[in-house]
Design brief:
It is a single chain. The longest helix has 17 residues. The protein is mostly helical. The N and C termini lie close together (12 Å). The chain is built from two helices and no strands. It is elongated.
Length: 58
């Protein structure tokens, strides 16, 4: 199955919110809620890609 960047972004947001429930993905890193830095976004997108590549539907 093919996953586009939107699928990866969505899953990365979900994983990020599980790790940091009080931070928002779409916020700027310097905001009060402390959104992710670009490095964190890249890290969570890599995790999402790994999760999707290991997923095998029945």
């Amino acid at each position: 199955m093919f996953y586009n960047e939107g699928n990866i972004e969505y899953l990365a947001k979900q994983i990020f919110s599980q790790h940091y429930p009080f931070r928002k993905w779409d916020d700027h890193p310097d905001s009060i809620s402390g959104g992710p830095t670009q490095e964190e976004k890249d890290k969570f997108k890599d995790i999402a890609r790994q999760q999707l590549s290991d997923w095998h539907p029945v």
